[in-house]
């Protein structure tokens, strides 16, 4: 996470670290695995349909 | 069955509604999907282009500073409530679904007043003002993070469901994506965007990043936002740098990317992590504490939703 007021100094080194370090990118990918839920749309469609009955 | 969606102003409010609409249509091709939104915002362009009905409601936010535009706000509220009443009476929706943005307020308030089942989906861990004000009137409050419950009024019918994302995000190949943008699939690609409206702070910091990426033999896709397109002038001429005010095909942007620099918006994070594929986020956060979706240590909720 890079905050707005630090973007001018921290964004470039952060991008360089990520681009040049496959291990860093793999770690970030592993950390983010749990957020996206591809089934959420279908779950919501079921619930909306149930409310419509 | 007719489902009326109300939401927009930004992609973060609009795209979860589109994801739900697509899932509803996949489940029942005969379902009538209608969107209520605001003219001049992203929904007025994207919704009709996807073949959905769109109805404009005249509403905007209330500025916390003293501005002349605020004088119109009470008029807009009154007009938007009448427009919502007419729209709901005419459509007779089975359910009304709000996904955030100012348009949600009058539409959901009126639908709940008229006894139509009304739900709101909240993408952020800290709910927006519309969600907080209307939560108790809603049949359900669908939430993305378990932590959101503590910000809702007691008695709200909250249900943890996650943040819906569009299936199309999973489909493109890297080769197809690079061809779309005129990029070399053999080169590493940086994809930069500050949400659907762009982010001036990211845009200001980007020329140095873009120059470094190009000097390292990489290529860049940069969405500046409509109002900040000039920020890219210093670097946009390079053939390895593709600059757009708005990227319609985010699925292709994600598919081309080896690294993403973006705002840590809830919808963006959900899209990026949907398949845990090639894109990685370095998410700058906005100045509003209420806009926080995930901290970098992953404390943004529980129930399987909370990593960032």
Question: What gyration radius of chain A follows from the Cα positions, in whole Å?
Answer: 19 Å
Q: Look at the structure and name the CATH superfamily of the largest domain in chain B.
A: Glycogen Phosphorylase B
The separation of the N and C termini of chain B measures: 37 Å
Number of strands of chain A: 0
Topology as H/E string of chain A? HHH
Percentage of β-strand residues of chain B: 15-25%
CATH-level-2 architecture of the largest domain in chain B: 3-Layer(aba) Sandwich
Give average pLDDT of chain B, whole number. Answer: 84
- Most strands sheet of chain A: none
CATH class descriptor name of the largest domain in chain B? Alpha Beta
Q: How does this model look, in words?
A:
The complex is a heterodimer of chains A (53) and B (308). With 53 residues, chain A is mostly helical. Chain A has 3 helices and no strands. The termini of chain A are far apart. Chain B is an alpha/beta fold. Chain B has 2 domains: 2-167, Rossmann fold, CATH 3.40.50.2000; 168-262, Rossmann fold (3-Layer(aba) Sandwich), CATH 3.40.50.2000. In chain B, 32% of the residues lie in helices and 17% in strands. Chain B has helices spanning 11-27, 42-49, 73-91, 104-113, 129-134, 174-181, 200-215, 250-256, 266-272, and strands spanning 2-6, 32-37, 53-56, 95-98, 118-122, 140-143, 158-160, 189-193, 219-223, 241-244, 259-262, 281-282. In chain B, the strands form 2 sheets. A 7-stranded parallel β-sheet of chain B has the order 3-2-1-4-5-6-7, sandwiched between helices. In chain B, strands 10-9-8-11-12 form a 5-stranded parallel β-sheet, sandwiched between helices. Classes of the chains: A mainly alpha (53), B alpha/beta (308).
């Amino acid at each position: 996470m890079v905050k707005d007021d630090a973007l001018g100094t921290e964004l470039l080194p952060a991008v360089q670290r990520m681009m040049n370090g496959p291990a860093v990118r793999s770690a970030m990918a592993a950390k983010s695995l749990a957020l996206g839920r591809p089934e959420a749309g279908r779950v919501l469609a079921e619930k909306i349909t149930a409310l419509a009955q | 069955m007719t489902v009326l969606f109300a939401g927009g102003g930004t992609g973060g409010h609009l795209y979860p509604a589109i994801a739900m609409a697509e899932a509803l249509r996949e489940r029942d091709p005969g379902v009538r999907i209608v969107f209520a939104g605001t003219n001049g915002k992203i929904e007025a362009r994207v919704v009709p282009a996807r073949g959905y009905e769109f109805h404009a409601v005249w509403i905007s936010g209330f500025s916390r500073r003293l501005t002349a535009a605020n004088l119109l706000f009470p008029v807009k509220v009154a007009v938007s409530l009448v427009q919502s009443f007419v729209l709901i009476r005419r459509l007779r929706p089975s359910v009304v679904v709000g996904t955030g943005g100012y348009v949600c307020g009058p539409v959901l308030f009126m639908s709940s007043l008229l006894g139509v089942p009304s739900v709101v989906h909240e993408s952020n861990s800290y709910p927006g003002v519309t969600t907080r004000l209307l939560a108790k009137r809603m049949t359900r409050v669908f939430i993305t993070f378990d932590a959101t419950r503590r910000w809702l009024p007691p008695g709200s019918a909250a249900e943890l469901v996650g943040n819906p994302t569009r299936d199309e995000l999973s489909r493109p190949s890297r080769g197809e994506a690079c061809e779309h943008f005129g990029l070399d699939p053999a080169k590493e690609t940086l994809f930069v965007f500050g949400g659907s409206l762009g982010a001036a702070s990211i845009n200001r910091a980007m020329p140095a990043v873009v120059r470094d990426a190009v000097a390292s033999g990489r290529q860049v896709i940069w969405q500046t936002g409509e109002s900040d397109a000039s920020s890219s002038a210093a670097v946009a001429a390079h053939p390895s740098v593709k600059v757009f005010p708005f990227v319609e095909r985010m699925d292709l942007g994600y598919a081309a990317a080896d690294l993403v620099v973006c705002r840590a918006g809830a919808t963006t994070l959900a899209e990026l992590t949907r398949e845990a594929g090639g894109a990685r986020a370095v998410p700058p956060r906005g100045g509003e504490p209420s806009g926080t979706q995930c901290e970098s240590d992953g404390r943004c909720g529980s129930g399987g939703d909370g990593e960032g």
